[in-house]
Amino acid sequence: MLSSKTRDELLTLLDALVNETITTEEHRRLESLLLADAEARELFWQYLGLHCQLRQLAQSWAEEKLLRLTEAIESGAPSPSPMSTPDSPRPGLIYGVILSLLVGFAAGVLWFRHLTAENSVLPSGKSDQPTTTVSQSLPPPDRLPHAAP
After folding, report:
1. Alpha-carbon distance 1 to 38, whole Å?
2. CB 60 within 8 A of CB 91
3. Looking at residue 134, what is its pLDDT?
């Protein structure tokens, strides 16, 4: 199970990877994280899948806008003013809502996995914290304060 620190580091490295700003050292670290943990590899595929879907959505939206603009120029029709209000919702608004829902869903999944990773119950004897018994936390009986009679 990935620790929250490792998960944050992995997400930072994945962000650098998809934005093409990753350094050689960061790339080596990303590879070592992915080779070491199956959960890291699963997160990698989810992150890249979401990134690819968002990129395809943005590209199709841009191509559609370019096609409409080209058709308007070729037909000699005046382009609609930016302040005009169409009768139907704009495709950009619909894509924006879809994009927001996708990002919100991905963030929710990642947040839920983060919470469950932090709140996992470790079996007895496997905890990083030493266990303290009541007898270890109380002073010896001769040092306990006595109530005044």
Report:
1. 9
2. no
3. 47
Closest by CA to 30, choosing from 21, 117, 110, 115, is 21
In terms of Cα–Cα distance, which of 65, 58, 49, 45 is closest to 99?
Answer: 58
CB 99 within 8 A of CB 57: yes
C-alpha distances (whole Å) from 32 to each of 6, 19, 29, 102 are 12, 20, 5, 29
Question: Six-digit token pair at 94?
Answer: 């619909």
- Encoding tokens for residue 98? 């879809």
- The predicted model scores a pTM of 0.45
Pairs from 75-84 (Cβ < 8 Å, separation ≥ 24):
none
pLDDT tens per residue across span 66-116: 888 888 888 876 655 555 555 555 666 677 777 777 777 777 777 777 676
